[in-house]
Amino acid sequence: MIETPAAVRVSRILFVDDEQAVLSSLRRLLRNVAEPWCCHYATSADSALEMIASQPMDVVVSDVNMPGKTGFDLLCELRQLPETQDTPVLIITGGQDEDNKRRALDLGATDLLVKPVSLNTLLARIRNMLKLKEYQDEIKKRNQHLDTLVKIRTRELELSRLDLIWRLGKTAEKRDSNTGYHIFRVAHYCRILAVALGMSEKFCDQIFQTSPLHDIGKIGIPDKILLKPGGFDEGERRAMEAHCLIGAEILSQEIVPPLLGQPGAVASPEVDLSSENHFLNMAADIALCHHEHWDGSGYPRGIAGEAIPLAARICALADVFDALASARPYKEPLPLEQVLEMMRAGRGTQFDPVVFQCFEENLTQFVAVRNRLADGDNSFPPA
């Protein structure tokens, strides 16, 4: 081998043959080849695999007939390993057996030669496989770069969506009263409960992102009702309860932007809007059902038990806890023991008993969130 400039990439070639004389002959012949190659030699498939595990190879040249594991066995193992499944492999057979040729190619051999093999032919095939490896590496590099860009862009879109969701949630709250960090605390409470219930990571992320929209329907309630300082009469109460229906309608998948497909729209007419959107489904379920009660005494539909979507059952408890534990323009925050006493009275009637049990078991986390995101004083008032 000749010495190569430092800037030239040295390719690693592994030759595998059980006959030491064959490998020695290859060493002598390749010593005078003017290629930037670093050649390695193994006398068995197992020793070849050990060498590859310690130092990746750019090309593997293997004889077929070897004691123990054959060249076919080596080829199979290389193709099963993620790090070597694309490594070019040249199989050398000892005869014109068509079955061996077909088997080598079926198992994933990159190229095939039949003994006796001339040095020029061997070098030409290795050069071709190195060029193939170079192309493969470049494609992988570009794909990895594209994957990174996609992940960055996806994360940016997720953060933008979350920011927009929380801004929409705050918009609805601003029409009602100054509730500070209410929707942020509710989102964290919901995630705590979802995790405690053993829900999937996707569910936990979605409820964290959708629960801030639970009161989005309040933007459709007239100011004279929404901002009324005193109690409601029967008509006003029904109008106020309608915010659940309004919120569900706003978040329904049936709403299609009329400009979709027009110049400047975010999607083309070919986009399938009929496909299920789990994010919108959960947001709509929460908006519609977060005032339903476990015993059926809630509103707007009076449904009970597990007929109430789980996300709504979770958000209902989180919403009530925060409303009782936080200050409002019309009330002071209640001490923790009083909050718990009032909520325990609703276990099995207002609240799902399983969700409530998770709440009590994770109360420390609720208090930590409440204090970390408190609107004023950073602790519960004394009992």
Describe the structure concisely for a colleague:
The protein is of the alpha/beta class and 383 residues long. 52% of the residues lie in helices and 7% in strands. Keywords: Phosphoprotein.
Keywords for this structure?
5 strands, 383 residues, Hypothetical protein af1432, disordered C terminus, Putative two-component system response regulator, single chain, alpha/beta, Rossmann fold
SSE arrangement, N to C:
EHEHEHEHEHHHHHHHHHHH
Name the beta content range: 5-15%
Structural class: alpha/beta
Low-confidence stretches: 378-383
Identify the CATH class of the largest domain.
Mainly Alpha
Task: Kindly report how far apart the N and C termini lie.
Answer: 85 Å
Average pLDDT metric: 87
Number of strands: 5
Please, how many helices? 15
What is the CATH architecture assignment of the largest domain? Orthogonal Bundle
User: What order do the strands of the largest sheet run in, or round the barrel if closed?
Assistant: 2-1-3-4-5
Number of domains: 2
CATH-assigned fold name of the largest domain: Hypothetical protein af1432
